[in-house]
Amino acid sequence: MTAFRRSTLFIVFLFILIIAYVGGCRRAGAWLTKEDVPVHADAIILLMGNFPERVLQVHDTWESGLADRVIIVEESMGPFSALESRGASIVSNSEQAAGSLVALGIPVDSIVLLPGNALSTLDEAYAVGKCLAGNSEADTLILVSSPAHMRRAYMIFNSTLRAMDKNVVIGCKPSSYSSFNGVKWWRRKEDIQTVFAEYIKIASYMLVEKHKLPGSEE
User: pLDDT tens digits, residue range 139-188?
Assistant: First the structure.
């Protein structure tokens, strides 16, 4: 049996175990919704995705005085770049998110839009790590994302920044504007799909992506 076949079978087996566990564990949704907010942070990281609910939470978090800077990594716009190459004016999701924060009252000079062309949370973590490389005093961050994405986002940022030799405390603030119910996730089709998808993505990260980080064993 080849190494690839063994790996594939292992992933399938793990997937089956995850489904069995999630199906029988009512706390599976609540576990995804990690919340751990430090007293103060150097920056709030707005993770792209469903940005309306995340932008609202970033504004509330900033307004509460937990941090005075917001960092957004420029999200990849994929095929939209072809339109730009032909002269179309495209406002990226990241630019819209930044503009929304300004409209809500956050000063424009408090928002940092990092280049990154990010396709994933892992790309965002790398971009933030590179930004922090030139700032040895920044040691505490608050991630803001959708509730179900929060646990995986923490895992990715924690592993990535440590691999980049950045010892950073990572806080988590899931958006309170989301409709996701982590406590009773099995009662709604959309929440069931979200929980299963997140556990699959966590398994993929642990088995594949994490081992590609700098300093990880092959």
Answer: 999 999 999 999 999 999 999 999 988 889 999 999 999 999 999 998 99
Q: Is residue 147 within 8 Å of residue 50, measured between CB atoms?
A: no
pTM of the predicted structure, to 2 decimals: 0.84
Buried-state track 24-45, b at ≥16 Cβ within 10 A, e below 16: eeeebbbebbbeeebeebbbbb
List the beta bridge partners of residue 72: 46, 113
Give the CA count within 13 Å in the CB-facing half-sphere of 133: 12
Beta carbons of 137 and 124 less than 8 angstroms apart: no
- Angle at which helix 189-207 crosses helix 150-163, to 10 degrees, equals 20
Q: State both tokens at 167.
A: 């010892």
